[in-house]
Amino acid sequence: QLQLQESGPGLVKPSQTLSLTCTVSGGSINSGGYYWSWIRQTAGKGLEWIGHVYSRGNNKYNPSLKSRVTISLDTSKSQFSLKLSSMTAADTAVYYCARGIEVLPVNWFDPWGQGILVTVSS
Amino acid sequence: DIQMTQSPSSLSASIGDRVTITCRASQSISDYLNWYQQKPGKAPKLLIYSASNLQSGVPSRFSGSGSVTDFTLTINSLQPEDFATYYCQQTYTTPQFGQGTRVEVK
Predict the structure, then answer these.
(1) pLDDT tens track of chain B, all 106 residues?
(2) A44 CB within 8 Å of a chain B CB
(3) A120 contacts A47 by C-beta, under 8 angstroms
(4) Of A13, A80, B17, B31, which sits 20 to 30 A from B78 (CA to CA)?
(5) Which residues lie across from B10 on neighbouring strands?
């Protein structure tokens, strides 16, 4: 059974860059038909898709965050990562990684990692 | 941007009740609509994909219907483990989630 686990700092200072890693186990990160996503949840804005990376290495990002986001894949470690620059208090959220399943033209997220709370504060 | 509006934002129900949650898109999204369940402190869990397809392992009391702009999640015979928050999500364009519907104990 595929499992995902987020890791990274729980506290980031304003203006810094957040770096999170998602480790995938129980399946291959190289399999076709999937993509690897980051989603965050705040009390104010709810669930917000950040972006994802395909096994080929190409990306899609939320236009509202695109200028600050980089998502990359490390197939040798079965991991993918998120970098979000210029962090502010508004980026305080629970960050989830998830597998995207694509059966064109439809797609969905399953499963999700347990989530990691990231707080932006000096 | 496509706006996803769920209603109600919360509801109170009893064990055994039939519960209906509605999700409306601001423009046509065909059947590119998924439903998730989230319990406190946990990640969302996929229930329904592509409007009406039950995810493997999800109890058959959950069902989804609709297309174009109007969609419904129905829970037949509500069980204790179903008290949670439910989200719709469209993937027609940039993935977006509804604001959630909290199902509470009456």
Answers:
(1) 899 999 999 999 999 999 999 999 999 999 999 999 999 999 999 999 999 999 999 999 999 999 999 999 999 999 999 999 999 999 999 999 999 999 999 9
(2) no
(3) no
(4) B31
(5) B102
Strand partners, B64: B73
What distance in Å separates residue B35's CA from the closest CA in chain A? 9
- Give B24-51 as a DSSP string: EESS--TT-EEEEEE-TTS--EEEEETT
Instruction: Kindly determine whether residue A96 and residue B99, on different chains, have CB atoms separated by under 8 Å.
Output: no
Beta bridge partners of A57: none
Alpha helix ranges (H) inside chain A: none
Phi, psi of A66 (to 5 degrees): -50, -40
Distance CA B105, CA B15 (A): 8
Tokens of A53: 């990376």
Of A46, A62, A105, the CB nearest to B99: A46
- CB-nearest to B44 from A62, A103, A112 is A112
* Among candidate residues B76, B106, B77, B88, the one with its CA nearest the CA of residue B29: B88
Length of chain A: 122
The whole-angstrom distance between B101's CA and the closest CA on chain A is: 12
Residues A101-117 have a mean pLDDT of 94
